[in-house]
Design goal:
By secondary structure, the chain is of the alpha/beta class. It has 17 helices and 13 strands. The strands form 4 sheets. A 6-stranded parallel β-sheet has the order 5-2-1-6-7-8, with helices on both faces. Strands 9-10-11 form a 3-stranded antiparallel β-sheet, with helices on one face. Strands 3-4 form a two-stranded antiparallel sheet. Helix 1 links the parallel strand 1 and strand 2. Helix 1 packs across helix 7 and helix 7 crosses helix 8. The longest helix is centred in the middle third of the chain and has 24 residues. The radius of gyration is 25 Å and the shape is elongated. 36% of the residues are buried.
Length: 409
């Protein structure tokens, strides 16, 4: 769907590369510009077959060229690439791209139709714009950690780098909107994506509750803050979840667990009452499920039309029949010729064929191809190499750098 769109990707680690991976999945040509040392994610575990699994996933379907932007010839080469591009993506701290010579004003002067996306922790302007951004910092500052965990427990970090991921998602959305606007006006724009903004945008119900009440949502553990029974419950061999949002479903649940009188109990007469007496209701439900397996609970409640599910781990989710049917993992060639699995983009389009899936590139593997497409001959390429514009002719060893505790934008 994005065939013919060329993206120059200066980003690294997670938020920016995830954005450009989504664009590449839809057929955009994504040229990943890496410094001589490569994207930091190349050195971050877990490793499989000598290759970072995180880098492999976030840089599928891309080409890689090494350019040393600190050399005059390297900067000129990067600007030449951007002059022929539709989109540029970067996730440096505000001001760094300008210092490197690839800021929006500079590149837009060369290419007025350029869509330029910047992903940063706190936006291109404002009192926090200078701060470094890691996912856990954003989860802490945006209220996600405070709203997650048991009521009597500490704030809890989510089990995914959601601030990074949602920032990449919003960046891809912003780029597509800007490309659509460019069709009408012929002009590009600067897409400013703040991880702070994006994380609060992700927190749609938390923000809505605060906007309506003026009070910060409280931690409620594995249950819904304003509905019951809606959460996780214990069975004989594990946990399951149910989601009951109305009286009809509650009546069906009461019958399914052999306690139809619960539907007439004043404590459980409606959703607010059930929520106020959630502990009593939980005791009734778990008294029934404590003698049954998770599988048995799901069969009984599912047959009664109750929204119910077992609590799976990621392996179980990805190895499920549903995930296989939806094609959520695909195989590509690994670093040494073995097959490796990478995630696919999750949106399906009728009448459209998915772009062929290609593995993440080795460091600088497409340099010569990209330079030939720019019209450079062998002698010109040789001169760039000799001058250091393309960095040294060595690939990044996977364990050259220590594993980072947190993910930078």
């Amino acid at each position: 769907m994005l065939a013919g769109i060329r993206v120059i990707d200066f980003s690294r680690v997670l938020a920016g590369p995830y954005c450009t991976a989504l664009l590449a999945d839809l057929g955009a040509e994504v040229i990943k510009v890496e410094p001589p040392g490569g994207d930091d994610y190349r050195a971050i575990g877990p490793f499989a077959d000598g290759e970072s699994g995180l880098f492999r996933a976030m840089n599928r379907n891309k080409q890689s060229i090494v350019i040393d932007l600190k050399t005059e010839a390297g900067l000129a080469l990067a600007r030449s690439l951007c002059a022929r591009a539709d989109v540029v993506v970067e996730n440096f701290r505000p001001g760094v791209a300008d210092k490197l010579g690839i800021g929006y004003a500079t590149l837009q002067a060369d290419n007025p139709g350029l869509v330029y996306a910047s992903v940063s922790g706190f936006g291109q302007t404002g009192p926090e714009s200078h701060r470094p951004a890691y996912d856990i910092i954003l989860q802490a500052m945006c209220g996600l950690m405070d709203a997650t965990g048991a009521p009597d427990g500490p704030p809890t970090v989510l089990g995914e780098a959601v601030s990074d991921v949602v920032s990449g998602l919003f960046a891809s959305w912003g780029i597509l909107a800007a490309l659509l606007a460019r069709q009408r006006s012929g002009k590009g724009t600067h897409v400013d994506v703040s991880m702070f903004d994006a994380t609060l945008g992700l927190s749609a119900t938390l923000v809505a509750r605060y906007a309506a009440t003026g009070e910060a949502p409280r931690r409620v553990g594995n249950r819904h803050p304003s509905s019951a029974p809606f959460g996780a419950f214990r069975a004989a061999d594990g946990f399951y979840v149910v989601a009951v949002l109305n009286n009809k479903l509650f009546q069906a649940l009461a019958g399914a667990i052999g306690q139809p009188a619960l539907a007439a109990d004043p404590r459980f007469a409606n959703d607010p009452a059930r929520c106020a007496h959630e502990a009593d209701l939980r005791a009734c439900i778990e008294h029934w499920s404590a003698t049954r397996t998770v599988a048995q609970v799901n069969r009984v409640l599912g047959a009664a039309g109750i929204p119910v599910a077992p609590i799976r781990n990621v392996r179980q989710a990805l190895e499920s029949e549903l995930a296989a049917h939806r094609g959520l993992l695909a195989e590509v060639a690994g670093k040494h010729g073995s097959l490796a699995r990478v995630p696919t983009q999750p949106v399906k389009f009728s009448g459209q064929h998915a772009a062929p899936l290609r593995p993440a590139p080795a460091l600088g593997q497409d340099t010569d191809t990209i330079l030939r497409a720019l019209g450079l001959g062998p002698l010109q390429v040789q001169a760039l190499r000799a001058g250091g514009a393309l960095g040294p002719d060595t690939a990044l060893a996977p364990h050259d750098k220590p594993e980072l505790e947190n993910h930078h934008a």
